[in-house]
Amino acid sequence: MATMTIGTKTLALDADGNLANMNDWNEEVARELAVQEGITELTPQHWAVINFMRQVFAKEGDAPSIRRLTKESGVDTKTLYQLFPKGPAKKAAKIAGLPKPKGCI
Amino acid sequence: MAEAIEKVSIIISRGSLEGVYPGLIMANGARMEGIEASLFFTFFGLDAVIKRRMNNLKVATVGNPGMHIPTLIGALPGMSSFATRMMKKEMEKLDIPPVGEFLTMIHDTGAPMYACRATVDMFHLTKDDFCPEVDGIISVGQFYEMAAGGQIIFT
Question: Do A103 and B95 touch (CB under 8 A)?
């Protein structure tokens, strides 16, 4: 199984390279995952999306759709694509320590 | 591993609800994966971007074996509206937006949208008939130029 190392800790990853266990996640891990995705700095808007995704996942077992992200996180679609270029749902889920979203929308 | 798809140009040529949605879902899905996407609306597919029509698209209940109802029953007044209502309800549950909202969403992801020049001329339409998401009216030749280097998906 693939792993990533943060400080002295080794964290397990799933087949997509996302954290295998969402409880391994913390803000430092998020920052490291963001850098891997080419995002050097996480702004408050990034955090709004990441926290919203974690909330929804904890309640419903899947990450929210882009439509729901847009409607409920307070970050519109255009901004979402600027914050997480090349695939916001997938990237934000990864940085949030969640598995890749299952939905199509 | 096979080479990843980096760009798709999706043609929407049909004007029924079930004719329009697959292309929209494919376009949105492409953008979600970080794939470059554009949409080209032609023939009755143009209805999806004509302001006065886009939110009134109907499911075809006649000549559509996929509905699994006899054609004569499908032809009864109100059947198409009924089937459309049912399908829209199911789509809403899956968080699939109405056509107008979906187009805005897809356009906001950075996917350009075009209307087919030949169809626009044939139906005597103008830019004003279209929703603001339509970036231009282009010829088939221009479409192929823009599609260069990517995959073309015809729906």
Answer: yes
Kindly state the tokens that stand for B139: 């010829």
Distance, in Å, from the CA atom of B45 to the CA atom of B17, rounded to the nearest integer, reads 10
* ipTM of this complex prediction, to 2 decimal places: 0.82
The amino acid at residue B153 is: I
The verdict on A20 touching B (C-beta cutoff 8 Å) is no
The model's pLDDT over A14-23, given as tens digits with 9 standing for 90+, comes to 888 898 888 8
Domains contained in chain A, number: 1
A77 in reach of chain B (CB within 8 A):
yes
The domain that holds B48 is classified in CATH as 3.40.1260.10
Asked whether residue B66 is assigned to any structural domain, the reply reads: no
Burial degree of A34 (CB within 10 A; 0-12, 13-18, 19+): buried
Q: Residue B61 and residue A66: Cα distance in Å, rounded?
A: 31
pTM of the model: 0.88
